[in-house]
Every structure is written in C-alpha cells, then in structure tokens.
Design goal:
With about 425 residues, this protein is mainly β. About 5% of the residues lie in helices and about 40% in strands. The strands form seven sheets. A six-stranded mixed β-sheet has the order 16-17-14-12-20-19. It starts with 12 loop residues before the first strand and ends in a 39-residue tail after the last helix.
Length: about 425
Amino acid sequence: MEWRRRLTLSAATLTATALALGGCTADRAPAKKEAVARAPLDLTVTPADRARDVPISAEVGVAVRGGKVRDVRIRDDRGVQVRAEPREDGSAWVPAEPLAHRRTYTAEVTATGDTGQTATRTTTFTTAAKSNVPTITSTLYFAGNRTYGTAMPVTVAFDPPIPKAARDEVQRRLFVTTDPPQPGTWSWLEDGSQVYYRAPDFWRPGTSISVRAALEGLPIGRDRVGDADRRATSRIGRQVSLEIDNATKQMSVFQDGRLLRRIPVSLGKPSTPSSSGRMVIMEKHERTTFDTRGEPDGGYVVDVDDAQRYTWGGEFIHSAPWSEGDQGNTNVSHGCANVSARAADWLMGITQVGDLITVKGTEVRLQPGNGWTAWNVTWEEFVKGSALPVPGNLRPAPAPTGSPVAPAAGATPAPTSTGSGG
C-alpha cells in the first residue's frame, strides 16, 4: 500500500494569480507607479483526487500560499457531512471520528487570496478495506469524568512498543487541549513503550483536560496499525503532595503548599529497598491483595487495606498495622511505604490519583517507566523525548556556557524494587 504516511500523496494544484499596483511619493518627487506582484493563491489538497486504499486515519491536508483557507467541507458517499477540526497550524483538518472502511469521501476546500480572489479544490478518495495486519494495542491512562491531582500526566502505553522511526506519526495523532490553556508536550520513554504529556509546571487546580488518542487504522511502521480511537475529558482537583524522607522515616502531607500532617513510615528493608524519585499516585484501593508468589524475595499473599499504588513494580502506600512499632524508625517492608491503619484511612480521604509523591534518601533510584515517571526528570530533559519539534514557547532556554549539564533523559539508573507490595 503506497499511501502509508499521513497525507503525503501528491495532489493537483490550483493557482489563481493577481497583480496589484502601488506607489508612493516623498519629498515632492514625481509620482511613479510601480507594479507590485502579490503572491499567487496556490492551493493544494490531499489525499490526491481518486486516491484509493487510503487509511481510515486520513486527514484532509491543506497547503495554501498567498491566502488563507476559508472553508473545508468533507462528505461521505451518502452525502453526510463529516465533522472535522483544523490542526493548530492549519496544515490539515482532522475528522472527529475514524473514517469508515471501503467508503468514498469528497473534500471541498475553499481559500481566499490576499487580494480577495478565491479558489476551490475538490478531491475524492476511497478508504482501504479493514487491514489484516496486527494492531498495536494502546492504553490511555486518563479516564473521563474524573478528578485528578495536579501532577497527573496524560499517559499512553503501547504493546508492542512503538519503533523510533514511527513515533512522530503516532505523536501527531495524540491531541490534548486544556481550559484554561496550559500548553505542554509529549515525551517518549527510550523503549517506546509509553509516552507522557505534561506542561512545564504542574496543572492548575480547576483545569479541564481533554485527550484524544486517534490511532485507529493508523499505519505504524511496516506491518502494524493502531487499534482504537480513544477520548476522555476530566478536571484537575486540589493540590496535594506527599514527601517521604528515608532519613527521618516521616511522610509530610501538603495541600496548597500548607503542611497538613506528618506521618511515620517504614520503607523497604535493605534487601527490597524503596525507590527514590518523583512518582504519581496511580491507583487507590480500599482493599486489595498482594500476591508475590514466584517473585524474588516474595512468596507471600496478604490482604491490605487503603492501598495507593505509585509504581508498576508494586510500591504502595498502605495500611500496615503489623509494622506500626517500626514506623518512624526502621525499614521492614518489601518496598512499600507502610503507615498505620488510622493514617492510611485518613490519606485515602485526602489524596487523588495524580498527586505527586516524592521519596528521597533510599538505596535505589526510580527507573524510567516504573510508574508514570514524567515528573522524575527536569523539563529540559523531558522535551528531549518528543518525536516532533517542540514549539518555541515551550523550549527551554539554552544553558549558560560552563554551567553544569543534567544527565540525559533515559540514562540508566540503579536497579529498583520490583515486588508487588509489602
């Protein structure tokens, strides 16, 4: 299938040309008329007219010189109008839903030139049959109609991971809008298994975030396609953060920058240390079961109350009445942050998925991707992971000559705990 990349087919070009005359006088010099050539109205539309086997992820691409697009109308072969929204840079109109397989669509684009002339270009194309090639499964870790914490990154995971050469095409089909506006960018893990979206700073409380992962039918690499088109809109709640210091064995709980409470903790013992880094609450369970049979240093099954996950490796804050005598002075857990039953119950009423947890002073560093680790790097490191150019207003300022250089994104840290709680 030749039409494998988004809107890269050649298309016919329609041109309208106009000349405008102009002149000026200065210091009483004789008036002199000069012909000033205006740029011709040059309008190109893709997919190409009569193109076939077009992916259902197709967009109507528009390239215009010497004017601006005035109207774009897309209809299917039954005459039903297809809703579409323009990209921010005006380079294409993106259908609000994936196109249907084996259907014919007509796009009519009208542009107005700098001197008032208009040009209309119409293209008709037919989408491909449903592909038999394997899909890449995507998971959007951002549900709709929820309230999240101010550190909540938009996370999309992929199985199998996205090859580096295909990440730009995938990233172009991931859309985030915020109200009020708080722009950010996407950043990929080195292995392509996850991509995160965040702004330079934490989300402002009350912000509404809308996400679309428009990947259904998108050609990915040579032999895969995207699996689904997913949407979600949620809001950001109050600002809450937790800071855990291994040196003092204390957790400090803040809301809107104000200290609410200090809670004694017991972290991972030397054989199963806790991870140090900036993490995010991922799940909350009033009651769950830790089953570590078959894992190193595991082999136990235990029911726990008021458990809050913050790594994929199995690190939780949870109620641990059996270790209350150690909390505040000795690390005895399998990597989790053990707190008293009363403190765990209180925390469940304060925290939200997406709240920031900072752990410091333990024996190991948090690994990239062990949880939603978008905040465990600086903004300067984070933007390096984008597969597309980062807008100028989001690019970090260059470091002064001679200043220290932060470690590159994706640098390999020390190993971390991989248990399933404890």
